[in-house]
Write a structure and sequence with these properties.
- Helix content is 56%, strand content 12%.
- It is mainly alpha-helical.
- Helix 6 (115-140) packs antiparallel against helix 7.
- The protein is elongated.
Length: 190
């Protein structure tokens, strides 16, 4: 099976014990993992669970019936799932990978718009980055039951802040070069 952030999240959450799909989705959101794992569509999560089960990485633990809810299938991590989770984690943490984000793709065609427009658009992105950095910094200061969240549980948020700050600084330097004429081009196809 090909690894993915969602597959890793499901396996990682099942390390803590058996869960049903709704419980997995709820924990992903509660723990803020939805900032790094796309669980916007519940169907994506259900499809992932089916694939993980077909590959023997998770298995059905029980089926729960509650008057208030429809029947729920509870899954647990298999030994193979635990092994694969650790393997994927090691690969992800050690091996940089080109993930093809949209922003660099957009930058690769920035010459299609006038430099002034590019500066304005980058200014809008810079404002959005400033807002997002502030939101994430608030998350880093959050507490649960009056206690700070342990740093290990917020490493992905720390990373996001560092990346966004670096991007904001880079945008500032590009906008400066556009304003001063140090960076310019004639708009149009290359």
């Amino acid at each position: 099976m090909r690894r993915s952030p969602l597959a890793l999240a499901v396996l990682g959450l099942l390390e803590n014990g058996p869960l049903h799909p709704y419980g997995i989705q709820r924990l992903i959101r509660q723990w803020g993992k939805d900032q790094v794992v796309n669980v916007g569509q519940r169907t994506s999560l259900y499809r992932m669970i089916v694939r993980l089960e077909e590959d023997g990485l998770i298995s059905v633990s029980a089926t729960e019936q509650d008057e208030r809810y429809p029947e729920r299938t509870v899954y647990h991590l298999t030994d193979e799932g635990r092994r694969v989770c650790r393997e994927w984690l090691a690969e992800i943490l050690t091996t940089p990978r080109n993930e093809f984000p949209e922003f660099p793709a957009g930058l690769s065609f920035v010459m299609l718009v006038p430099p002034k427009t590019a500066g304005e658009l980058l200014g809008q992105r810079r404002e959005a980055l400033t807002k997002r950095i502030s939101e994430l910094q608030l998350e880093l200061r959050m507490e649960v039951d009056g206690k700070p969240i342990p740093r290990y549980a917020l490493l992905e948020t720390e990373y996001q802040v560092a990346v966004l700050i670096a991007e904001a600084k880079w945008i500032d330097s590009v906008r400066h070069d556009l304003r001063t004429g140090k960076l310019t081009w004639t708009p149009g196809p290359v």
